[in-house]
Amino acid sequence: MSITSTALLTRATRLRRRTPPKGTDAGIFTCVSLTLLALFAIGPIILFFFNSVKTSNDYAASSLGLPKTWEWGNFLDAWIQGNIGAGLINSAVVVAGTAALTLVVSGCAAYALARLDIKGNRLFINYLLISSSLPTQMFLVPLFYMAVQARLYDTQIGLILIYVGLFSPFATLLLRSFMLTMPKELEEAARMDGANELGVLFRVVLPNALPGLLTVALVTALSAYNEFLFAVTFIQNSDLLPASTTFYSFQQGFTQNYPLVTAAGVIMIAPMLILFLFLQRRFISGLASSGLGG
């Protein structure tokens, strides 16, 4: 190697060391943006927790500051006064029933729309899009009348059936989008082996659609767990009320005991938050692969 080539190589090496790698600025900007978004998402939860361990005087003085006296007994008072234990059990029954029935209904409907040659397929899809975009308050009065006529008012099964009807359209669209990405070769092989459509659905399609099913179950469970309007309208028996309606227990005259309300809120969001943290990877992968994540 000549002296000139050696000099040029040395100079290029020095310039490479001085020049920052491409994408560094973009990487820093991404990290800063994600950090700010994380703080924006976690900030209200942290503030909610601080308010849950304040006294009433501390909350009245400042609802945004740190507690001067940490009242950990607020959680026990909220648990007893709001009967949250029974509310969580009722919520578990309603959530489990809603998620299970929604998976059955939306799974069969999504398979029919994604794989079967149905006349008016596009019409059904448009109907599901419109029905899932309408505000649920529109259905409150007719559903109340139907529940009374069917003697399902003030029963958990009645509330579960209402939730299934409300959440199935979106769940069907989500599962249909996921099934469209699945290869058809496995289904054709199952039909060649003599399987009927139900056999193809339950033995081939649904096992391979497990990420999409898990996503639908998690979205439906979160929606049913957090729903308040229909729960407080269709359930009057205090022994059957879900956890989302326990906030009524902390009303004192025309005022609310906000530290106890926030303590009950922390207890309420804890199960769903833990569940989501454990299943977030499957949830995100299922939502992304369905085509509705972007």
Describe this structure in words.
This protein is mainly alpha-helical. Helices cover about 75% and strands about 0% of the residues. Strands 1-2 form a two-stranded antiparallel ribbon. A hairpin with a 2-residue loop joins β1 (about 250) and β2. α2 packs antiparallel against α13, α4 crosses α13 (about 260-290) and α6 packs across α8 (about 155-180). The longest helix has about 30 residues, at about 85-115. The model is unreliable at about 1-5 and about 290-294 (pLDDT under 50).
Provide tags for this entry.
two-stranded antiparallel sheet, transmembrane, disordered C terminus, disordered N terminus, 73% helix, cell membrane, MetI-like fold, transport, transmembrane helix, membrane
Q: What structural class should be given to the helix and strand makeup?
A: mainly alpha
CATH level 3 topology: MetI-like fold
* Strand order within the widest beta sheet: 1-2
Model regions low in confidence, pLDDT < 50 over at least 5 residues: 1-5, 290-294
What number is the mean pLDDT? 81
CATH superfamily: MetI-like
Please give the number of β-strands.
2
Radius of gyration: 27 Å
What is the approximate shape?
Answer: globular
Q: Give the distance, in angstroms, between the N- and C-terminal Cα atoms.
A: 54 Å
Strand share of the residues? under 5%
Q: Helix coverage percent of residues?
A: over 70%
The appropriate CATH architecture is Orthogonal Bundle
Pfam families: BPD_transp_1
Family: Belongs to the binding-protein-dependent transport system permease family.
Subcellular location: Cell membrane
Keywords: Cell membrane, Membrane, Transmembrane, Transmembrane helix, Transport
